[in-house]
Every structure is written in structure tokens, then in C-alpha cells.
Amino acid sequence: MPDGGRLLIASTCVNVDSVPADDTRRTASTFVRVAISDTGSGIDPTVLQHVFEPFFTTKAKGMGSGLGLAVSRQIIEKHAGCIDVRNNPEKGCTFRFFFPAAS
Question: Environment class of residue 59 by beta-carbon count within 10 Å: exposed (0-12), middle (13-18) or buried (19+)?
Fold first, then answer.
């Protein structure tokens, strides 16, 4: 957020119905959701469709590898979880991480 803003990190337990429907690896009935939100400018829609692709970056050469979200997604999925992003142009975005709850 180059112009400043707020960063919010929140966690809660949710049931399987709150996990993104396109995730077919869901095996648990309860998940821990961690949401990281900001009040920045949001993500440009043309960029948004690529944010989880390996080596995709909007940073200047030498300032980022473009692996952060791609690797994060792989790690989360290996633990039977999932990640999604909700974007609100001009108002910020939220990345939501879902992890199966331990019993």
C-alpha cells in the first residue's frame, strides 16, 4: 500500500460450506480460515488472473521472483487446504487461507 492504509489479519473456524466450492480436495468438515485484508487500491483485474502463477510478478527486475503466492498455494494444498483472493478495486483485497482443523 504505497499510500498507506490498514492491514487486518483475522482467523476463525468455519464449516466446509464456507470453503470455496471449486476446491475438490476438501476432506475435513471444519477448517481454520486465516484472512489477510488491506485497504489499498486492490489488484488490477488483468493481474489478478495471474497472481498464483509461478514466476509472475509486477515488481521491477531483481525485486521479486514471483514465487511467493505460487509456493504458498502449493504448501497449503499439500496440507489439504486452499487459498483464494477477493478483490475490491479501489478498496483493497483479501487473501483467505483455509486449513483443515485438527481434532
Answer: exposed
Residue 17: DSSP 8-state: G
Strands 7-15 and 92-100: unpaired
Distance CA 77, CA 26 (A): 10
Query: What's the pLDDT score for residue 39?
Result: 94
Beta-carbon count within 10 A of 98 CB: 24
* Grid coordinates of 10: 483475522
Note the pLDDT tens digit of each residue in 13-35.
998 777 776 655 566 788 899 99
- What whole-number distance in Å separates Cα of residue 88 and Cα of residue 70? 21
Contacts of 44 (CB under 8 A, 6+ apart): 89
- Average the pLDDT over 55-80 and give the result: 88
